[in-house]
Amino acid sequence: MKRQNSFDVSNPAGLKLVPDCNPYLKPNTSEAKLLLDAKVIVWDEAPMTHVHAFLAVDRLLKDLTKCDEPFGGKIILLGGDFRQVLPVILRGSRSLTVSSCIKKHRLWFDFFVMKLTENMRAFDSEKEFASWLLHVGEGESREKIQLPPFCYPEIQDPVQQLFSDIDFKTVTPEELKGRAILTVTNDLSM
Fold this sequence. Notes:
Helices cover about 25% and strands about 5% of the residues.
């Protein structure tokens, strides 16, 4: 379940995912501490998640934080594409699969949805990158993969770039709203 400061929410705490299951973690466990200490929870491939797991995590975080707000007041960043893979329901009909989707639950309306509206890889200026990405994705590269320089901006200090106008000694949550630095691993974070 625990991987390098991450928590697998695809099946929280190895639960039998049925309606109204009550997940429980003892507050003094390392998993509970990890969730309590988290400022942001990033949930990748969220559209694949069965609504029961979604609700189980909501109940678990409410229980741990003793806060009745959605997900115990934690910031949840969901990522994924609903046009790709929905929850897999063994011998389930199309309507059962759709109704098992997190998008069909009332909690979904508590999220601020941001949509990608332009396929950047389809632009003429991105053809080289699209070709390179396909080459990597098909496993055709036998060498260590090095991102081409055009893939990342030339920013010396991203914290300075994003937060130069903020005094961190007196910062408020409102001042941080709408700003984030996301990184793939903790090793790359500051």
